Amino acid sequence: MELLPRSPGEFGSARYWDRFFRQRGQRPFEWYGAFPELCPVLHKYVRPRDKVLVVGCGNSELSEQMYDVGMCEDIVNIDISDAVIRQMQERSGSTRPKMSYLLMDMLQMDFPDAHFQVVLDKGTLDALLTDEEEATLAKVDQMFAEISRVLQVGGRYLCVSLAQAHVLKKAVDYFSQEGWIVRVHQVASSGDKQQFVLPVFVYVMTKFRKIPGSAPQILEICPEEQDKPMRMESVERLVAAVKDRQHYALLCSQISKTPCREQVSLDLCDKESGKPRYTLHVVDSPSVKPSRDNHFAIFIIPQGRETEWLFGTEEGRRQLAASAGFGRLVTVALHREQHYEGMAGIQTELSGKVMELAPPGLPARQQVPFLSVGGDIGVRTVRHCDTSPLSGEYVIEDVKGDGTCYFRRLIFLRNRNVVQSEARLLAPTPLPGQKKRRKDKKKSSPAEPPGAIDKSYLCCEHHKAMVAGLCLLGGPDALPGELAVLVVGLGGGSLPLFVHDYFSQAHVAVVEIDPSMLEVATRWFGFSQGDRMKVHVSDGLDYVAKLSAEAPAQFDAIMFDVDSKDLTVGMSCPPPAFVEKPFLQKVKTILKPEGVFVLNLVCRDTRLKESVLATLRDVFPLLYARRIEGEVNEILFCQPSPKGRCDPAELRTRARALEGALRQPGRPWDSSYVLADMLQAVHIL
Questions:
Q1: Phi, psi (degrees; rounded to nearest 5) at 21
Q2: What pLDDT, on a 0 to 100 scale, did the predictor assign at position 413?
Q3: What's this model's pTM, rounded to 2 decimal places?
Q4: CATH number for domain 258-371, candidates 3.30.450, 2.60.40, 3.40.50, 1.10.238
Q5: Cβ atoms of 655 and 471 closer than 8 Å
């Protein structure tokens, strides 16, 4: 028995539907959307005294179920198939006397104007709008015009649909231009196995009198039946929001059946603002042998730690999942713009949603554990938000690290997963006679605010390596005397501050193109200028070019730690112009013959990186490289003369001598910072 049409156009043919319902017999045919799923939405828009028209009723049980539960009794059902109308009249005529079935074409209805309060369409528009041919679109316009004619002002057209993009856009375009309010509901799934993977939607178009002129469109979406509607600014945005939910449903269907070969990433957005609230990564560990208790777990990343290697990289998350011992781990990152009510609140909020990401084979009613570091959600305090004309929006935030330490961070929101600058905060010192305040265990925030910046601590591994490279300036037993150092790129100022404070005879010139960053470093990161520290607000390219023409060979060390504002290039540090050969030759010109040029290179494009290294080798005869473990950063130490060549063992000897000179009594030193270790993996290119 062949029920499918030979062409999409047959969906509009009475002959096809007569044949379809004769062959199918008495069995009800539901395209999609069972009554228990649709009922919460229908209850909002169908009142018991409403006169309801159902177009393209078929032999669906929807009208009968609405009648039987008392939702509404004055229901008129129409269809172009004589066979199905006779079938439905026989089925409901005696048991539902107030409901009628009429043979009628919805494109040419016999009803008077403004006759109904509700028009209900379950799959009829989807069946009619199978393509975007001119003849099809003309039929759809005729359908909409007839629905508009028979509806009263204030009446509702309820259209149950799978919301293919062309169907949704056509409906929303037509009725919004007529001045109607358009709201799209996503129908909540019952959890049973569905005929369709895609979610079902109900378009609710409410008729208003058309106001002459350009009245604002009112477009809304309700992600689930209990949610408040969210206003959409355009038809395109509404269609995109529906498409996002369809993609999510497809994703959930896919990963519920098969393990993820690659990590899956998605954002869950705040219902009020529409901004991302949680970022989820689904990580499967094929090596974990499944048992009843290790199928699935959720890991809440503490606030402010989402950029750490373990949580912020694919390899880190893979190791986290394997060490946690679960077949599937969903990591959850919390966004700084959002407020969270502790671990219990997050668990309540996410429990239903994360179960949609459960792996295949999860036992029924299996409890899924929520994990974290130390059992809490961490602490993040945003200290300052602003916008720079050059760097865009940025935030200064204090976060709790691993253990009891707090850190201050600068984040550029155009690249929010990268910490631009970071400094450790000293524990606050009580005033004389002041008792230490006890912690309130019920509060998730720190009992006391963090103190001043710890200038003795370099948070960034690449900064530690850059400082260690200064051992190339001295012999194996000597610390260089007076040093002239140029640092291009200020950020929070940690690097130039450390050089200034620990190399007591160093004169440091810093070049920073963005005046906002000088204000940030001074106000929030403890940076200050003095006799041996000067900041020049200038483009580094122009500053170096000017010096090369005026005063060559004046710096012992030149350090580049400058980010690129162009995120389309596969190199985020430095900007490409800083590693072009003519400019590098100018850098070499202002560097003393025995000096060292230290470059922080962050390049994900392999070909581009090879090109940069080749250019550096052309300009600087001696080139050392130090890769930062777990990061993309690679620190390059470039010298203008091959005479100072050191093998790795000699480099580490020099680093130990330099560290011994820097570690003076009464001067704080981070015991974990061993200069020789920072040069352990250095190799000559």
A1: -75, -30
A2: 86
A3: 0.70
A4: 3.40.50
A5: yes
